[in-house]
Known about the structure:
The chain is an alpha/beta fold. The protein folds into 2 domains: about 15-195 and about 200-210, Rossmann fold (3-Layer(aba) Sandwich), CATH 3.40.50.150; about 290-390, no CATH class. The chain is about 25% helix and about 10% strand.
Amino acid sequence: MTHLPVVPPEGGNVSLCTGSAALDQAVEAVTGLATVAVAERDPAASRLLAARMPHALNLGDITTVDWPALAAGMPRPVALTAGFPCQDISNAGPRGGIAGDRSGLWKTVAHAVRVLRPRLVFLENVAAIRSRGLDVVAADLAAIGYDARWMCLRAGDPEVGACHRRDRWFAVAYPAAENPHLAVGTQRGTTAPGQTQSGRARTHAGGRSGVLAAPGEPLRLLPTPAAADGTGGPGTSPKRRGGMNLRTAVTLLPTPAARDWKSGASNLIGTNSRPLNEVVVNLLPTPKASDGPHGGPNQRDTAGNYYLPGQAVRLDDRWVATNGTDYGPAIRRWEAVLGRPAPEPTEPGTKGNHRLAPAFVEWMMGADAGWVTHPDLGLSRSDQLKILGNGVVIHQAARAYSLLLGLDQATPGDTEAVA
């Protein structure tokens, strides 16, 4: 596994809106950084974190934390993670955007970043944030001196291999004068191309527009727009010493294709460069937090498709649904990635019927067996499904962050069931 060469290890990772700590496990898989503090107010999730991460201080409700006092009492964090609430951003929610009652917690996350000044910030939310809040996130980060890059990635894409779609937005932010590809101790002395050594170091070009060039690779820039661009067709300019002008450059860009709609900035690094007809597996519905307290076997989405609780009870022992949809290839693919077989999708209900099994959802999310569902934790089925539905697919997040940081793919290794 390739880890980001960030030093020093002290300070570790501070996790906000922690939930099941799946996002923190992904960050640790990529960076090697342990989580030293979590922030979770939900009683059930807090009980889980106390059992699974006893070394980490739980800060509780992030809206009540005294951030200056916390910063004064701990080393500067190397990382801060936040999968902040998506209820107001998601297509399945009220669509109020990032200013909503729940998703508005982003402002508190931004304030924590402003005070703690972590070297790296790892963010996660639903893909719909691109039209319901990304402008606010980018502006807030810029206002506190942080540059950012982001992408969307689906858990069900072949690069990850999960058996459900789970389209999510991931971002990495860092202080604009610090290059995350370099050791912390040398960052301030690094200069941008054309800048003298004594000048103030500036960030790598293109940071706020998406994905940066990987370390050691030259960044290819388009020609600067000129007044003459509007008076003629493609050509070269003598003032550019024989180089092409912008009119010529844009004619040489790749031809638009039907697949260009997939995942926005991730196309810049080739992760979605395959044709649309290469998707060869049927994907299960993605887990939701409401599958526990409100999920039922007959609930469907607006297109008439069953949610996960309804689809799970309609699968036979070959993973074929009652309508003939074969989920077997997707299940077997994820089994190969995780290195363990899928649990039974259902369990006996209180009235003798069958219902969605939390252990199956835990497996779908790529968590260690028993991480959320072990009986010793004493969590109700409803709490288990809520925690898992609010979480992130660990392999998906690790894949996205390693791509955003220009690293080889880093995914959690095979682990045994939690005792």
